[in-house]
Amino acid sequence: MSAPEGASAAERAVWEALGRVRDPEILRPITELGMVDEVRVDAAGRARVAISLTIAGCPAARRIEEDTRAAAGGAAGVTGAEVVVGVMTPEERRAFTERVRGGRETRPQQFGPDSLTRVIAVTSGKGGVGKSSLTASLAVALAARGLAVGLVDADVFGFSIPGILGLSRDGRTEQPTRLDDLILPPVAHGVKTISIGMFLGDQDPRTTAVSWRGPMLHRTIEQFLRDVWFGDLDVLLLDLPPGTGDIAISVGQLLPQAEVLVITTPQEAAADVAVRSALVARQTGQRVIGVVENMAGLPGPDGGVIEVFGTGGGARVAERLSDAEHGDVPLLGSVPLSPGFREAGDRGAPAVLADPADPAAAAVLTIAERIAGLGRGLSGRSLGISPAP
Ligand SMILES: Nc1ncnc2c1ncn2[C@@H]1O[C@H](COP(=O)(O)OP(=O)(O)OP(=O)(O)O)[C@@H](O)[C@H]1O
């Protein structure tokens, strides 16, 4: 929607400014989404903007209201701005969800084999190697490069993504917005993020144990991929639980075209199990695109490096996964131990944004650049186009 005919110059300026206000969950302009009902600017330059939100008090409401006021107030010829917030009628909401979907149905799966979204599942053999920290940081780094990025935290037992991305504070995790059968994921640092930790209702994730059997886990991942509206993504990252359990197998079945990124530490024991988790992914048809070594040497105060977890694990995993059949699996980078990187994650402000000069953050940024540059092979895939008759 844009300024109606007969609008004054100041009203047109307000409409134009509102075109730069994005819904923080859908990441599209509120004018395009039909959320602006009316713009009036009186002779004294006072603007009155009427907007309609999907649900009263939806998590994004205050942000949209503030951004709208700021945008209208800053438009040429405007001396002050008032924002009147209304709620869409069920009819308007239906039209809104249609607009969000762009006429497409959410079902079946959004990330089927013909989708142009690169799906990258991040796996590790054992826990605690920094897989979640690296997945979240890579997602943020790729989004900062201008890509549309989604992140599914499929680490059901150890979901830590909401905390690392600042979506969880004091035991309360930000909730997705539900619009009828559409689930809109919260956006953190430009990344559309969904986690099992967002579906625990009022339960405190710090004290809530998730103990689900395989079929329930499978259904949850399936629902994440089907009902959560990510829109058009360039990249979808999945943080898998460590090891080769039910979730890894479900993801392999649901997303056989996914690429796999393997995280290990330099330690022999971590490297051995990392190779095994990659081999399981391969059995389901997924392609291993590379290995990242985390928790490599800790820079010491005297300029030396303390090899807390030894050396060489990343290179060993890459070498063992490279063969004539699968080609060369590269070691995409080695991320040093860094107290600053950990602290930033604990604060919910990833170091790749908050402190890009941090040695671990810098290594992750370089790895993100390499991953973005790898692209995805389209050979053998249907592009969904047919010759003109
Ligand atoms: N390069 C690093 N330097 C310092 N600390 C790190 C680094 N990478 C990860 N950490 C820290 O190590 C801990 C474990 O990391 P994380 O939770 O990301 O591991 P994980 O492999 O996802 O574990 P799990 O799968 O068992 O949940 C976290 O406290 C994290 O902040």
UniProtKB/TrEMBL annotation:
Its recorded name reads Iron-sulfur cluster carrier protein
Q: Does the keyword Metal-binding apply?
A: yes
According to its UniProt entry, this protein's organism is: Leucobacter allii
Residue positions annotated to bind ATP are 125-132
Q: Which CDD domains does this entry report, sorted A to Z?
A: Mrp_NBP35
The keyword Iron is annotated on this UniProt entry: yes
Q: Which domain of life is it from?
A: Bacteria
Alphabetized GO MF terms: ATP binding
